[in-house]
Amino acid sequence: MKKRFGSQIFISLILLIMYAPILILAVYSFTDSTNIGAIRNFSLDNYVTLFTTPELADMIGGSLLLALGSSVLATIFGTVGAIGFFYSKKRTQSVFSAINQIPVVNADVVTGFSICILLVIVFGMSKDTYLPLIIGHTVLSAPFVYLSVIPKLKQMDPSLYEAALDLGAKPGYALWKVVLPQIASGIVSGFALAVTLSLDDYFIATYTKPATFDTISTYVVNATKGSQTEIKTALWALSTIIFVLVLLFAIIMNLLSNREVKEEAGERLA
Amino acid sequence: MKMVFSRKQLGIPYALFLILFVVAPLFVIIYYAFTNGSGQFTISNLTDFFTNPNTLGTLCYSFVLAFTTTCVCLLIAYPVAYILARSEWKAKSIILMIFITPMWINFTLRITALKEILTLFEKNLAYFPFLNSVIGMSYDFLPFMILPLYTTLTKLDQSLIEASCDLGAGPVQSFLRVTLPLSTPGIISGVSMVFLPAMTNYVVLDMLYNSTYIMGSLIGSYFSAYDWNNGSMIALVLLAIICIFTFFGNNADEDSQARGGAML
Lengths: 270, 264
Fold this sequence. Notes:
The complex is a heterodimer.
Chain A: H1 2-28, H2 45-52, H3 54-86, H4 90-105, H5 108-122, H6 131-155, H7 159-166, H8 171-200, H9 203-208, H10 216-225, H11 229-269
Chain B: H1 11-33, H2 44-51, H3 53-86, H4 92-100, H5 107-122, H6 129-155, H7 158-166, H8 171-182, H9 184-200, H10 202-209, H11 215-224, H12 228-248
């Protein structure tokens, strides 16, 4: 009994340390103070600044657009690639799975730097076309989509596709109507992963982005070094909003997966 | 002649994509690392790296920093993962979720929050650069260590521990001789999730006290100086370190998705 109590305290303490900075910042985002520690008045100024400053709106909108765009590309490449490699010869599959692993284990600085050298220095592509940035983020996330689709293909009953062909479906139709629904959960989680990776990235963006464009990460890094306190505290509001959204998303995911487990259990009973 | 459709062909676009944007950049890096500004073959970038006290010092400092960060993360994450995996709490999966959730919040925003708190205690963060680097990186990377450890520890066969107790091992002995060795895959993948970013993620240090002195920042500074050749050499050295890690952590392959794998 005593031991269990001790471990509860330990877990709570670590969680407290992990969340204290974000929570304290969230509280202070609702005040007019410019530093943590000073007790000031309640104010929604930070939120007003966040939503009315064009520079901030551009940066957030740009990051979201980039995240969605590159994730759609990454999901298409990763999913179609996973289906293709999965049904290829064992050797082809293992070679490309190994290559797919490179961006996963590689340091983001190296990935960003090498893509920039290839596209901008060797190919002479202009960063202002946004192409290096979009390609960079697709390279970052497509391997993760691939990794989340492959297990679903392994789980799938291989005779389903054959049955569809025997029943007269064309290969494309069978893939669309039979294979795709079977691996849909892998595609969705791969896409979600791609979005978070793109939103969290600093290094690839910093080496490949146009000089006038900022993602959330590159913007925040410059703002913390800058002296504009108004922008600095508006970012506290942004941090709070993202925290709440992530928390909501986590709760929904948890509820959904609980329901799935229950449904599966129910099916098994029935 | 009509082309016969086969599912294999679907792999072609992604294969081209990988060759063009993953493999080709690596060869370009190797090419640049072994040539000088005018494109002639040279190994001086390599010899410079290992004779220049500045780059060597940075390499050593990054190693020490990454090693310390990894130890701190391991010392915190192992008990957390162990307690969660062994507990019979109903809310276990939710508690794990709470530990993992910070991974989905932009890391620059999390470091901003940490910086504000640390400033409150220390006034000027540049007074204790090493300490603050370790705090910042551990704060950033802790979830990446907890997840693979938890995955390995929940898969662990409880009957083995019971068996070791039945055979007369005390709790400490059965932990050291059974649990710890069996959780090695989780430790390896957790360590590789933390060690490499800790050597390269210079933004954390840059944000905390406006100064960086690790391997990643060398690439950054050569890049801003338009010195692709020396920058590529640093990238190549990092790649070599990554290769060594992957070689030793080969069996931890599946867990290396942990970078965001909580959703999978």
